[in-house]
Every structure is written in structure tokens, then in C-alpha cells.
Amino acid sequence: MGDRYSRQELFSPIGKQGQDLIRSKHVLVVGAGALGSANCEMLTRAGVGKLTIIDRDYVEESNLQRQQLYTEADVQERMPKAEAARRHLQSINSDVEIEAVVADGTALTLQPLVQKADVVIDSTDNFETRMIINDLTQKYSIPWIYGACVGSSGMSFTIIPGETPCLHCLLSTLPIQGMTCDTNGIIAPAVTMVVAHQHTETLKMLTENWSALRPGFVSFDVWNNQYHVIKASKMKKSSCLSCGEEPTYPFLQIEKATKTAVLCGRNTVQIRPSSERKLNLVKLAEDLRNGGYEVKANAFLISLETNGQRMVIFQDGRALVHDTKDEAQAKSLYQRILG
Prior knowledge:
With 339 residues, this protein is α/β, with parallel strands linked by helices. Helices cover 34% and strands 22% of the residues.
């Protein structure tokens, strides 16, 4: 490896032994937006052995202000974020094994990924996915790091199954539900600060410096110069259905899964098919063009314009219907296009 990681190894809590541990570990990053792309870049530069990235979305122009891994070329190609991230990261460190998964973070898609990971990093923008992560990591005893940001503020908490409270425990005590969307805007320093907390905790876990982990729940506002650490140990609940004495993992139940969802702050409805699908995108694009639709396509998705609305279709049958929050209208368009 030469001098590549020499500065990291000179940091005594890591050292050469810690670097070898980092190289042997596998991290799952759920979400490849602002938090996810920055976490992925830091992990790749740190020399993690394997990095798996799962994300449901593609790169748009509004992402470039804070999602540091992407370029204008990604926007023009409408590249899925997970695949765009993989390509850029591979050029940063070709020694890291990088797996890109273009899919929604459901209990079905996340379970096999969580089971194989040493650490999971939450970089999502919605609580449905976070609660699925929470239940899966509790079920399979995988540590994970919650993170969220909006405006100029952010939060982070490190969750160790069997030791710390889980996210389900915290929901009844801490006001963290409001950190799930970007309707109030966001500035890049808030993103960077959350990532700094998440990545530092990840390095501690990858190098097995468990005693150095931060026990508290961190919240801050970089614009208003506020920083708080809340002691969370007493928030663990023996009755918690996710991590208590008799867990039922309620957020893994199939009836909890949302088939349609308005994406927060996006004026967009996501639709998931009721059963697994694998579309032939080449044939579908040809059929849509023959049907008179304006279509753009790549190996990962199809984008089409119809009646002033834009619809993006992924290979797994999932679709994003833009310029509407009307779920019924979005479903109608989906059924008209895909049946």
C-alpha cells in the first residue's frame, strides 16, 4: 500500500493494525445523497475493504450544491446515484471493492445487505427506511449510525444492538421526527458536520475501538452556533418491540411497506410494484417510443415526458412520477404505462 494510508496510520488510535482491520471490513451505506456520497468518499479514501451503496434515486441538478461526489455529466446522463457514486469512487481508490445497488431500501432489499455488513451507515431521507434499518440491525446484531440534517442543523447517534437504545426507543423521547425532509432547504456545512460525526464513529468501529464510541445523541445548528450532546443510555426500553426483551421487529412486517410515497420536498411520488419485477428496459423504451412518448434511456432507467409530467422507470419496476403529490394521479399514470 506504500504511503497511501500513512497519515491515517500515524494516528495512534488507528495505527498499522487498525488500518489492516479497516481493510478487512465491509460497510453498507443506505442512501447516496448528501450524507451518503460524502460518507462513501471518506470510506473509500480510508481504504475500507468493501463498500456497498444502495439508493433509489438518480442525480439531478439541485443535488450538486451539497452532494459532493456528483458532476454535471451525471445530471445530463440521469445516472442512478449508486452507480454514479461507484464510478467516481472507483477512480479514487481502485483497491476498494464497491457494490452499487439501484433499488429502494425495503425490508426485502436491505435484509441480505445488512446481514453481510460489519457497519451500516444511515444516509436516508425518510423514517420508513430508517426504521427498517433499525429493526434489521437489531435482528442481526449489526451496529449502525443514524444521521440526519436539514437547514443548518443535524443529528447523529451510534446504535449498538444489545447495548444502546435503538431508534425506536428514542422516538418517544427525542424530537427527531422533524429531520426527515429538505423542505426548509439545507446548507452544505450541516451535511459535512453530520458526516464528520458518522465517519469518525465508523472508523472507531472498523478499528474495534469500541470504548471510544460516543455514548450520547448529538444535535447541532451550525448557523446559530448551537451544539448539544444528550445522554441516551437511560432511554433504552425493555418493552421496545425492536430491541426489548421480546422483540417482534414491527417495521419488517410486509403490511408496513408503503407502495406509494410522496418524496419529501420533491413534488414527486414514488411507486413500488406489489411484487418483484425485472423490466426489459431496452424493449420498454422501444415500445414507449413507438407509442409516441418522448423517451430518454440508459442501462439503468427510462425517463419519459407525457402531458407535462416526467416519469422515471427503474429496472425493478419502481417509478418516480415528478411534478405531482397526488398519489392517485401517479398510480394512474403508472398503470397506464406499465399495467
